[in-house]
From TrEMBL:
It comes from Branchiostoma lanceolatum. Its EC number is 3.1.1.-. The gene is BCHE. GO terms for biological process: acetylcholine catabolic process; choline metabolic process. InterPro entries: AB_hydrolase_fold, AChE-related_enzymes, CarbesteraseB, Carboxylesterase_B_AS, Carboxylesterase_B_CS, Cholinesterase. This is Carboxylic ester hydrolase.
Length: 593
């Protein structure tokens, strides 16, 4: 049965015997929760039994007058709820990735989509006593796409192999999830408060599935990992979970959020573009937008380049993430955080001229510089020069792929590794158990060129145990790696430590020399200082360089335009550059020592 606006038809008043007769393949699992009675599927997985409950509602359908509002709790139901089929994905731009490659298709919902989408799925192991640790998945997709129903996020292998309860949840994305007016009618951050509502449901009901509500770990990738940071910051959600596993999505990544004023102005522009002029006031705008087709709103936001993101609204999120981490204004909790070796290559082939999955992507220096300006528009010309020098001056210039590889390193530092390090340091300062990883395994069945390496999202199939499906063609070593990663994730959810009691292969991150583990098919190994020098370049050099040169340019613009003044200005700029070169040489030595 397809879930749309007819959710009420999922509440079965028929007798259990009639339900049993209607199911032809799997046996039925039956659980009574505070929310109501639920029946699901009984699955044979890895020689054990897992109960799967698919499409349980955790909030009122966000349709009609509830569109753009924060989620409202679901009332308990009478009778039996049929949780034997996947729910619809939330409305989104299913062509968001713009490609038909296998890995993109893996992340794109291929089933029904609907505005009525606030459902979650539960996989319950039956071979462990009650009180199991709970892992709740938050999906990625740049806050524009994503769904809990993807085959990639099937929790059965993780539940069976590690005896943990696995939950995946839908949340609203794009315009319907993050449009902001600053009013109750569209307060923004609906996609985040949806997740908070799902976690509240888990807290209240998961014991009925054998889970321990005091052992809830949220794990998420990309925007899902970033969501963990936001949920950890907000007073409305921080007490709903206990630990976090952040995969390629540190909350201080320099993307994916707006100030309240920027989000408001974006809403005004967007409303005008769909025929809802602002001259009659915000209530009229919201009413007009509620009359529009939801898919049309999402599609228009893409066409008009008015994509909506989480907003620092002063209510659910009261502080910029960077400030929150510096000030300690976030939940003290154990965290496991990391990224993949070649995070950016997946995006470079989409965004930048010269990059392609069909060529070696040997870009020129000019394309390298344009890439810097595209991804990091806040840099002035002096900072751009500094970045070019830092990442290319020490390379072998005869290599045709020099700028390709340098850009991958630059992007990974700026968007992934350095935000990971900043986040890890903040948690260590709070006294929280903190562990870091680098996922470095390129799947053997991946068809993309070798130069792309271990791309964004490559770890997820190993986290969810897909290599354990023999039909997918993974190697024996990859199967073992997947089992090891699932064990680490489950151990962390249980104890706050990814190691078993009898092993210490993964050391904790610390303030002085870092410490992170490399996850691949080789023997477990630790490395020190994940890109510390490069991160110091961005934090301690580039940002002050921008501030000082901008101030200097401003002061020069206010003085008489004499040749002597211009000469003095240039002299100061060159002194700044010279100091950079000396600093960069030290960094290069540190990186390669």
């Amino acid at each position: 049965m397809v879930r749309g606006s007819n959710m009420v038809h999922q509440i079965l008043i028929a007798a259990l015997a009639a339900l049993l007769a209607s199911l032809e393949v799997e046996a039925v699992a039956d659980v009574t929760t505070p929310a109501g009675r639920v029946v699901g599927l009984e699955l044979d997985v890895l020689g054990t039994t897992v109960h799967a409950f698919l499409g349980i509602p955790f909030a009122q359908p966000p349709v009609g007058e509830r569109r753009f509002r924060r989620a409202e709790p679901m009332e308990p139901w009478d009778g039996i709820y049929n949780a034997t089929s996947k729910p619809s994905a939330c409305i989104q731009d299913v062509a968001f990735f713009g490609r038909q490659d296998t890995i993109y298709n893996t992340w794109t919902p291929d089933g029904p989509i609907s505005e009525d989408c606030l459902y979650l799925n539960v996989w319950q192991p039956t071979h462990v006593p009650t009180g199991a640790a709970v892992l709740v998945w938050s999906y990625g997709g740049s806050f524009q796409v994503g769904a809990s129903v993807l085959d990639l996020y099937d929790g059965k292998y993780l539940a069976a192999a590690e005896g943990v309860v696995v939950v995946t949840m839908n949340y609203r994305v794009s315009t319907l999830g993050f449009l902001y007016t600053g009013t109750e009618g569209a307060p923004g951050n609906m996609g985040l408060t949806d997740q908070a509502m799902a976690l509240k449901w888990v807290k209240e009901n998961i014991a009925s599935f054998g889970g321990d509500p005091s052992l809830v770990t949220v794990f998420g990738e990309s925007a899902g990992g970033t969501s963990i940071g936001y949920l950890q910051m907000s007073l409305d959600s921080r007490d709903l979970f206990n630990r976090g596993i952040v995969q390629s999505g540190a909350v201080v990544m320099p993307w994916g959020r707006d100030s309240a004023s920027a989000a408001y102005n974006k809403t005004i522009r967007f409303a005008e573009s769909v025929g809802c002029p602002p001259d009659k006031g915000m209530d009229a705008i919201i009413a007009c937008l509620r009359d529009k087709d939801g898919q049309h709103l999402v599609d228009t936001s893409v066409l008009r380049d008015t994509r909506f993101f989480p907003v620092i609204d002063g209510s659910f999120l009261v502080e910029n993430p960077g400030d929150a981490l510096k000030n300690g204004n976030f939940k003290k909790m154990d965290i496991l955080i990391g990224s993949n070796t070649n995070e950016p290559t997946l995006f470079l082939i989409e965004d930048l001229p010269g990059f392609s999955s069909n060529t070696s992507s040997a870009i020129t220096k000019e394309q390298f510089i344009k890439g810097i300006e595209y991804y990091i528009p806040g840099l002035n010309e002096f900072a751009v020069d500094a970045v070019v020098y830092q990442y290319t001056a020490w390379l072998h210039h005869e290599e045709e792929t020099l700028y390709r590889d340098a850009f991958g390193l630059l992007y990974g530092d700026y968007f992934n590794f350095c935000p990971d390090v900043t986040t890890a340091h903040a948690h260590v300062r709070q006294g929280a158990a903190t562990y870091m990883y680098e996922f470095a395994q390129r799947a053997s069945n991946l068809a993309w060129p070798d130069w792309m390496g271990v791309v964004h999202g490559a770890e997820m199939e190993f986290v969810f145990g897909r290599p354990l499906d023999a039909a997918l063609g993974y190697t024996a070593e990859e199967v073992e790696l997947s089992r090891r990663i699932m064990r680490h994730w489950a151990n962390f959810a249980r104890t706050g430590n990814p190691n078993n009691n009898d092993e210490t292969t993964w050391g904790a991150f610390n303030q002085t020399d870092g410490g992170y583990t490399v996850l691949d098919t080789h023997d477990p190994r630790m490395r020190m200082g994940p890109r510390f020098a490069a991160c110091a370049f961005w934090e301690e050099y580039v940002n002050p360089l921008i501030a000082k040169t901008d101030a200097l340019m401003m002061s020069q613009s206010c003085e008489p335009d004499t040749s002597d003044a211009r000469a003095d200005s240039k002299a100061v700029f060159w002194l700044l550059q010279l100091s950079l070169y000396n600093l960069a040489a030290v960094y290069v030595f540190t990186l390669h020592a």
